[in-house]
Known about the structure:
The chain has about 280 residues and is mostly helical. It has helices at about 1-20, 25-30, 40-50, 55-75, 85-110, 115-140, 145-165, 170-195, 200-210, 220-250, 255-275. The model is unreliable at about 80-85 (pLDDT under 50).
Amino acid sequence: MIYLLDLQNKLDGIRDLLLEKLSHPYLLEHVKSPYIDDDKILLLISLLDQYGVKQEQIENYTVTAMLLQIALDTHEHVQNSQSGEEDDSHKNRQLTVLAGIYFSGLYYKLLAETDDIEMIKQLAAGVKEINEHKISVYQKEAEAIDKLMHSVKLIESTLLGKIADHFHAAEWHDLTANWLFVKRLIAEEKKFLQSGKSLVFDVLKKIALPKVDQSSTELSNEQQKYLLSICTRYIEFSLTMIDTALNRLPGMNSLLADRLKLIAGQHQSMSKKFAEEG
């Protein structure tokens, strides 16, 4: 119990550090507050804690990686300019770009304060990989479902995977990659079921249903089921890979185990709901 409380305190402390660094009065007034993924923080501090990293370094590695992730995510939310758009929309887009640059600047400032050159190289390589795969997904370049899903997995997990590789933690790399991949696919399922559209399902539709009008959100019940069944297959395979990784990891903390059960439960609940409504 003491260990779990200590782990929760570390998570809360790092979240507070991030919020403090991300607090810019003008940006917060005009730009949506950046999303902080507690699961990524939990995975990072659990990995680093298990490898005996000192608390100061845990904070530095985790805050650095999360700032970089938030900067990448912020740039992803920049909307394309539209002819005749109002000044407020133009201003919001410019501020979102500036917010991403500001968060990147915070990341580079932290890097300048560390002497871990190898980690800097790993994270820099990670940013390059993520951007390459984002371009592939956004441009709908994937010609095969496996290639699409591989890109989605790397977009979600590469930064944490680079930190795991830095510590030669193969099991943590596998756990992290599959965990974050499942989370992303569940989020895409929710968007698709609610609106008929999502980034991943739009690309999946192009690959799996090439004869369907790609500009339309209207799909038959059978077509929706088909796309969801593909997504479900990848989710369930990744859940088995998570179990395999967990079995190779000694003394997994219950915070991670409970969170994983919750995520798996979300998938099962959504699958059941769609089956009943379908």
